[in-house]
Amino acid sequence: MPIKYLNGKRLYYAFLSGAREIIRQKDQLNKINVFPVPDGDTGTNLASTVNNMLQEVKASKNVDLTLQSLADAALSGARGNSGIIFAQFFNGWANAVGERKTLSIQTFGESVKAAVPSVYNAILNPVEGTMISVIKIWAQSVYDMKNKTHDFSDVFNSALLKAREALENTPNQLKVLHDAQVVDAGAKGFVHLLEGMAQFIRSGNLREIIQEHEQFIDKVEPMAESKTDLSYRYCTESMLTGMKAEKITRLKDQLKNLGNSIIVAGNNKKMRIHIHTNEPANVFYQLKEYGNIINPKVDDMKKQYGASHEKHASIALVTDSIADIPTALLDYYNIHVLPISIFFGNNEFLDKTTIAAEKFHQLVEKTVQFPTSSQPSVKNAENLLLFLSSYYNSVIALMVSGKISGTLNSVYQAAQKLQDDGYKIDVIDSKLNSGAQGLLVQKTAELIESGLNHEEVVKKIQYLIPRVKIMVSVANFKYMVQSGRVSPLKGLLAKFLNLKPIVSLDKDGKGVAFAKAFSRRANFNKIMNIIRENHQKNPITRYCIVHSQVPELAEKYRQSLVKILQLEPQYIEEVSSVVAMASGKGAVGVCIMSE
């Protein structure tokens, strides 16, 4: 029986079939991902995008409501270059459909063709041989069929053949694909969507389609080595609300001076921004002038390339941005970092990534309302773990103390979902923060590098956790009061008495103030005495120094500690903005490990 129209429910189930196909092909898409950079995450990003659409969509009998819901969900959950192009197609299509309750073959053809220009217009420099080429050829093929048949099954089957031909032609259009002997990963993902949709339109049996998909194994040949261009390191994205359409051109002009792969997609309610850049903090500083920043994301493509092409070991190591550890060490060991969110009013920033320490303190001084922080979402944690599980045998996530942040719980929930699917992931409560957590992360990376197996590394970490300590000399109680960690009354009293606290973490990872003095000099002496006592009882094997905007004071600590311990610090590092929210400007911390 011919299918003469699409209503909202039929479109939803067709999309569900196509989305399942993308999710199933995730790993194969990651393997052939070489453009715009070979960071091996196109499959993960597309799978995450369609999965978000499936979770948020509200299916209706009316095709316009279903399609608009799909478009909104795509925009809010889009990840990566391909994910945002994918989302923009759905937004353009929804706008072209307007308020139609059903789609005939003719209106279907007209609406998908009308969506194509919006996809091209969203990209600053459109490149043929990618997803946009396949979308354009597929949409034209659908349009050409609008007066040739009365059956949607014929339309989908015919247009799918054209889309596959366009996909096979992508290496002829883009040299990097030709050199690597692969088709474009994003374009292939779109074809997989069409394959799933066409199969549902043909059979109408969703259960049968899913079962067939699970039994089918797609074979992908190993790709040849390709030249790698990582001149821009960070894949940076955000949603903007409250942005006026007439400002899009000006925003694109500003962004083009900061990177490439620029996409500004969306509608008059919200825009999704995508750029490859070396200056994510500068990008976000520009974006805040155009609207409210929500759902920021920054992927380190150098790390992703390392995971997919140059990984050091079979065990992936993950931590969060509260762990204060130099970028050079994170890069050397390919340690992956999950950032904490910081909110200044309606604008969301990512700790260490989209807001620099100096800029953080400037904004604190200017703002009336003190910033707040938020743990990473379970979804963001799941995306990172899922990506790493594609390239490593197992994952160890060493997180900030569960007593002072909900980050541990987010990662734990994400890991549970993947563990149910057979992935090997251990999520460990370090019961530490800042430089102490950083020291333990560094040691863990060394253990992995030494060749120990997963279980041996986890056992050693658990042994070391109680043997790592942190002592922080805080300049004043101002930030502690503003962040809610100390009551205003206690803060006022401390200010009146000119008290300078020393804060630490107890054995359970809970923040404690274990000493206080009336001067920074007295605090310095107390910390040095504690170090001497600890070193005599159980020799300190490594230490680091962290500070908040006082490098000269950190150097003073280093000079004294070298005399006491006869050791140089592993590193001296500026604390994360999240740590600075509690410790305040001027704080200095000493972190020690006794192995």
Task: Give your account of this protein's structure.
There is one protein chain. This protein is of the alpha+beta class and 595 residues long. Among the domains are: 211 residues, DhaL domain (Serine Threonine Protein Phosphatase 5, Tetratricopeptide repeat); 127 residues, Hypothetical Protein Tm841, Chain: A,domain 3. Helices cover 52% and strands 17% of the residues. It is built from 25 helices and 19 strands. The strands form five sheets. The chain has a six-stranded mixed β-sheet with strand order 16-15-14-19-17-18, sandwiched between helices. A four-stranded antiparallel β-sheet has the order 4-5-3-6, with helices on both faces. A four-stranded parallel β-sheet has the order 8-7-12-13, with helices on both faces. Helix 24 links the parallel strand 17 and strand 18. Helix 1 packs across helix 10 and helix 7 packs antiparallel against helix 8. The chain is elongated and about 90 Å long. About 4% of the residues have low confidence.
Question: TL;DR?
Answer:
The chain is α+β, with helices and mostly antiparallel strands and 595 residues long.
Keywords:
595 residues; alpha+beta; Serine Threonine Protein Phosphatase 5, Tetratricopeptide repeat; Hypothetical Protein Tm841, Chain: A,domain 3; 6-stranded mixed beta sheet; 4-stranded antiparallel beta sheet; 25 helices; 17% strand
Give the overall form.
elongated
Strand order of the largest sheet: 16-15-14-19-17-18
Class of secondary structure makeup: alpha+beta
Instruction: Write the CATH fold name of the domain at 5-215.
Output: Serine Threonine Protein Phosphatase 5, Tetratricopeptide repeat
Task: Kindly estimate the percentage of residues that lie in beta strands according to DSSP.
Answer: 15-25%
Q: Helix amount, in percent?
A: 40-55%
Distance between the termini: 74 Å
What is the chains' assembly state?
single chain
> In this structure, how is the largest beta sheet organized?
6 strands, mixed
Number of helices: 25
Query: What's the count of strands?
Result: 19
Mean pLDDT: 88
CATH architect. name of the domain at 5-215: Alpha Horseshoe
The CATH superfamily label of the domain at 5-215 reads: DhaL domain
Spatial extent as radius of gyration: 27 Å
CATH class annotation of the domain at 5-215: Mainly Alpha
Unreliable stretches (pLDDT < 50, length at least 5) are 212-227, 486-494
